[in-house]
Description:
By secondary structure, this protein is α/β, with parallel strands linked by helices. The chain has eleven helices and eight strands.
Amino acid sequence: MEFFIDTADIDEIRDLASTGLVDGVTTNPSLIAKSGRDILEVTKEIAETVSGPVSAEVTALDYDGMIAEGRKLAKIADNIVVKLPLTEDGLKACKTFSDEGIKTNVTLCFSAAQALLAAKAGATYVSPFVGRLDDIGQDGLELIADIVEIFENFEALETKVLVASTRNPYHIVEAAKLGAHVATIPPKVLRSMYSHHLTDKGLDTFMKDWASTGQSIL
Length: 218
Ligand code: G3P
């Protein structure tokens, strides 16, 4: 499973990319707003920091606007993936970009029917939002299971399932068990994946026992 980080915070991206555990980055208009940066500048900086795919989202709602914005974003760097909303115009724009060989991430997916349309439009990635479905009392991971099952039925569909709106390590582990290709993870959630109280307790015991030997490896 690939791990993308879901942030436009360049310091967080630099820090987490240095671990070698990050395969890409996803952003959205809310994350750009939170960063307080200019979208074109910060996207360029992110694309220079990680070699993997960097999703940059259009903000136009109509096909022509999405095409114009998407082309501009795609020109920023070779690793830019144009992120488009799952609307009729978004899917039309997805088909156009896909025919031109521009990579796309179709976002705000909340149903298997929507995911199927994104795949038929040639999306490189489709982003189902698990956390936001959980928030309204639905099972976000059940949607991931449905989409993975559907995509596995058709070898010709090359669209990758990118699990978005992840809120905790459980989402990531369950999505991995279901065979989702990618999870985009907020920095805080990625860091929480390191932690286990038995790791801390075990290390503490090892260090105390080691100190009692008076030895040094170096
Ligand atoms: O990038 C889209 C998605 O991951 C947003 O997550 O937590 O705002 O639902 P969230």
